[in-house]
Structure formats: C-alpha cells, structure tokens
Amino acid sequence: MAVAQSHHFPTPPPPLDQDKPAQSPSDAQPRLRIDYGKLQREADELAREAQTIPADMASVRQGMLPKDVIEKLKQIEKLSKRLRTELNP
Fold this sequence. Notes:
By secondary structure, the chain is mostly helical. It is 55% helix and 0% strand.
C-alpha cells in the first residue's frame, strides 16, 4: 500500500542585509550606458601609446631597452582591456 507523501520544503531564511530592499528583475540587469566620449579619449590614448612602440623596438634591436617601454606596453594592455570590456559587456 503506497502512502502519499507531501513535501514540506523549509522556507528560506531572510536576507542578511535587511537594510537594502529586494532587487526587482530590472535591477539585476547591468546598466548599458556607454560614455562614448570617454571611450574615444581612451582609444586616442591607446593609439598614441601604440605609435611609440616601433621606435622603442628599434632601440631594443640595437641593444638598448628604453626604461618606459614595459610601462607603455602595460598601459596599452590596460586601455585595450578597458575598451574591450566596455564595448562587449
């Protein structure tokens, strides 16, 4: 003889941070506001930095490592990543 079992699931605990109201579904979506002016300035800065690398590489071929070339490459990478993230959230 099979006995029908009813499932009584426990209620979830209240949120730990009760000062904040619960998020509505629209709040959970990321904001897609893009500052195109800022992106353009960063793209211009990226282009300026990148233009200096060929001359630095010519110095490297002659056996001299310009002291700021590593920092320039890091800055190029940082700007590139920031632009990529902003344009492809």
